[in-house]
What we know:
Blueprint lengths: L3 E2 L9 E3 L8 E4 L1 H10 L7 E5 L4 E11 L2 E11 L6 E7 L5 H11 L4 E5 L13 H19 L6 E2 L5 H10 L2 E5 L17 E6 L7 H9 L3 E3 L8 H15 L4
Parallel strand pairs: 1-6, 2-4, 7-8, 7-11, 8-9, 10-11, 10-12
Antiparallel strand pairs: 3-6, 4-5, 5-6
GO cellular component, one term: cytoplasm
Family: Belongs to the RNA methyltransferase RsmE family.
Organism: Petropleomorpha daqingensis
Amino acid sequence: MAAEPGIPEPDGAPLFLLDELPDDAELLVDGAEGRHAVDVLRLAPGEPVRVGDGLGTLAEGTVVAAGPEGLRVRVSARYEVPAPQPELVLVQALPKGDRGPLAVELATELGVDRIVPWTAARCVTRWREDRVDKGLAKWRATARAATKQSRRPRVPEVTEPMTTRQVCGLLADADLALVLHEQARRPLAGVAVPSSGTIAVVVGPEGGLTDGEVLAFRAAGAQAVRLGQEVLRTSTAGAAALAALSVTTRWS
């Protein structure tokens, strides 16, 4: 069954993700996904579900069997969901503890397309060489789980950690680059936001941005902006910015 471009109407059906989505009339959701569907959600034959590959392809169907092997789904329609515009990129300074996964979870639910872990000068948390893979795995697993929860057709990319110099290169290539800064005079609401291209948002660590980081980002073409009078945590500021940007672009 060939996939058609478009966006399926929301219907409340749960979403399951497979590493590959075969072009078959029936799909088997097995492994951890299948166990969750059968043992936790207790889905039964006849119930509607969606199965995706996390890259924009979605299959709609109904459950025909649920058991030890997992969930067997009969496909009724397939869609190739185009990437949303504009592309939203979050450059997230490494928060401490579980606030990193929290930032990833919130950003994913609010539509981020790419998350860049950034080792800022004042980060309390440091991913040493022997911890990079573990940290990335946790962030990527969180993004995948939040994608299913929010029923998004695409799992956001979590890139390798970047240095300040590398982040500057990313900002220079963006169509709009913003740095959240509590001392900025310009509110985010006053920025002209493009309807296409790439928008990058930088969120600093708990200790704040250094003057050198702010100057480097401005030299790369970024604008320093504030969200409001309140000072948000690094784990929630990115989500707030993404929501504000989406109001005038994707949600309008």
